[in-house]
C-alpha cells in the first residue's frame, strides 16, 4: 500500500513537469498504480488506517505526487450536497469553464507541501471535464463549486502547477473579482 513515504514534496522535479498522456486502454501496471492511488486517498480518510500508517487526510492525489510523469489522478470525497466522487481518472481535460470564479474561504493545502500557505486560491466556479475512468469508461462531467475546485487542484498537478501559484502575492487574502466562496453557498 501507498503511504506518505511515497508522496514527493516541494522541490521534487515531478511536481513541476507537464505530465505525459497515458496510453489507453490502461496497462495492467498503470491500472495497479491508479487503484493504489484511489485506495491511498480512501485510507487517508479512514480514522484507524490513517492513524496506524500516519497518513495525512486528503481528498485526492495526482500521479506526479508519487514522482510519476503520468496524467492520472484519484479523488474520494463527498461534496456539500452529499454527492460522492470516488474514482480514478486518466487524461482528464477541462473542455470548458465559467468566467465566474470561486474559492475555498480557508484556502487550500497539499500533501506535497509540508507548511501552511495562507491565501485565497481563485478557481473557475464551473468546469466541464472529459476523462477516462478507472473502469475504462469515457466520461464528461459538469462540476461546480467545491467539486470543481478539487478537480482543478488535481489537474493542476498534471501540469506542474501548485495551488500557491494562484495566490495574489501582494494581497494573499483579498477576495478575487467575480468570485464567491464555494463553502458557504
Ligand atoms: C484543498 C485540498 C485539495 C484540493 C482542493 C482543496 C487536495 C489536497 C491533497 N492533495 O495535495 C492532492 O493533490
Ligand atoms: Ni495537491
From TrEMBL:
Gene Ontology molecular functions: metal ion binding; peptide deformylase activity
Domain of life of the organism encoding this protein: Bacteria
Keyword Hydrolase recorded: yes
Entry keywords, A to Z: Hydrolase, Iron, Metal-binding, Protein biosynthesis
Catalytic reaction(s) noted: N-terminal N-formyl-L-methionyl-[peptide] + H2O = N-terminal L-methionyl-[peptide] + formate
Cofactor annotation: Fe(2+)
Chain residues that bind Fe cation: 110, 153, 157
Record-given protein name: Peptide deformylase
